[in-house]
Protein backbone atom coordinates (compact mmCIF):
# COMPACT_ATOMS: atom_id res chain seq x y z
CA UNK A 1 0.00 0.00 0.00
CA UNK A 2 1.46 3.32 -1.12
CA UNK A 3 -0.08 5.30 1.73
CA UNK A 4 1.55 3.01 4.28
CA UNK A 5 4.96 3.16 2.58
CA UNK A 6 5.60 6.73 1.36
CA UNK A 7 9.34 6.24 1.74
CA UNK A 8 9.28 3.78 -1.17
CA UNK A 9 7.62 6.35 -3.44
CA UNK A 10 10.05 9.05 -2.28
CA UNK A 11 13.03 6.80 -3.03
CA UNK A 12 11.63 5.91 -6.47
CA UNK A 13 11.04 9.60 -7.32
CA UNK A 14 14.59 10.48 -6.30
CA UNK A 15 16.08 7.63 -8.35
CA UNK A 16 14.08 8.73 -11.41
CA UNK A 17 15.05 12.38 -10.99
CA UNK A 18 18.73 11.56 -10.38
CA UNK A 19 18.79 9.45 -13.55
CA UNK A 20 17.09 12.19 -15.60
CA UNK A 21 19.46 14.79 -14.16
CA UNK A 22 22.60 12.73 -14.84
CA UNK A 23 21.62 11.39 -18.27
CA UNK A 24 19.73 14.35 -19.75
CA UNK A 25 20.05 17.67 -17.91
CA UNK A 26 23.77 17.64 -17.07
CA UNK A 27 25.02 16.77 -20.56
CA UNK A 28 22.44 18.90 -22.40
CA UNK A 29 23.09 22.06 -20.42
CA UNK A 30 26.72 21.43 -19.31
CA UNK A 31 25.64 21.75 -15.67
CA UNK A 32 28.59 22.17 -13.32
CA UNK A 33 26.81 23.14 -10.10
CA UNK A 34 23.27 22.76 -8.80
CA UNK A 35 20.93 22.91 -5.84
CA UNK A 36 17.63 21.03 -5.48
CA UNK A 37 14.85 21.15 -2.93
CA UNK A 38 12.19 18.47 -2.61
CA UNK A 39 8.62 19.32 -1.66
CA UNK A 40 5.52 17.22 -1.08
CA UNK A 41 2.01 18.45 -1.75
CA UNK A 42 -0.93 17.72 0.50
CA UNK A 43 -1.83 14.46 -1.26
CA UNK A 44 1.77 13.29 -1.34
CA UNK A 45 2.77 14.46 -4.81
CA UNK A 46 6.53 14.99 -4.72
CA UNK A 47 8.32 17.53 -6.87
CA UNK A 48 11.65 19.31 -7.01
CA UNK A 49 12.71 22.93 -7.38
CA UNK A 50 16.26 23.64 -8.42
CA UNK A 51 18.88 26.11 -9.55
CA UNK A 52 21.49 25.00 -12.06
CA UNK A 53 24.73 26.59 -13.28
CA UNK A 54 25.70 25.90 -16.88
CA UNK A 55 29.31 26.33 -18.00
CA UNK A 56 28.26 26.92 -21.62
CA UNK A 57 25.62 29.59 -20.98
CA UNK A 58 26.54 33.18 -21.79
CA UNK A 59 27.39 35.46 -18.90
CA UNK A 60 24.41 37.23 -17.45
CA UNK A 61 25.74 40.63 -18.39
CA UNK A 62 22.65 42.32 -19.75
CA UNK A 63 23.71 45.96 -19.69
CA UNK A 64 23.37 46.47 -23.44
CA UNK A 65 20.73 45.43 -25.94
CA UNK A 66 23.28 43.17 -27.67
CA UNK A 67 24.07 41.36 -24.39
CA UNK A 68 20.37 40.91 -23.65
CA UNK A 69 19.80 39.56 -27.14
CA UNK A 70 22.70 37.07 -26.86
CA UNK A 71 21.46 35.86 -23.49
CA UNK A 72 17.86 35.51 -24.71
CA UNK A 73 18.84 33.70 -27.92
CA UNK A 74 20.97 31.13 -26.07
CA UNK A 75 18.22 30.28 -23.59
CA UNK A 76 15.52 30.40 -26.28
CA UNK A 77 17.13 27.29 -27.82
CA UNK A 78 16.67 25.33 -24.59
CA UNK A 79 13.56 26.59 -22.82
CA UNK A 80 9.96 26.31 -24.00
CA UNK A 81 6.59 26.80 -22.42
CA UNK A 82 3.13 25.74 -23.48
CA UNK A 83 -0.17 27.03 -22.18
CA UNK A 84 -2.59 24.08 -22.49
CA UNK A 85 -5.62 26.38 -22.13
CA UNK A 86 -4.71 29.67 -23.84
CA UNK A 87 -8.32 30.88 -23.98
CA UNK A 88 -9.05 30.27 -20.30
CA UNK A 89 -9.87 33.44 -18.39
CA UNK A 90 -8.28 34.05 -15.02
CA UNK A 91 -10.71 33.97 -12.13
CA UNK A 92 -9.20 36.97 -10.38
Automatic annotation (TrEMBL):
Residues 2-51 form the Helitron helicase-like domain. InterPro entries: Helitron_helicase-like (IPR025476). This is Helitron helicase-like domain-containing protein. It comes from Elaphomyces granulatus.
Amino acid sequence: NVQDNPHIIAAYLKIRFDTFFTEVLKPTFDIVDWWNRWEWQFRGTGHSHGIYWSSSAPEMEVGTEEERQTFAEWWDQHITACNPLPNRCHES
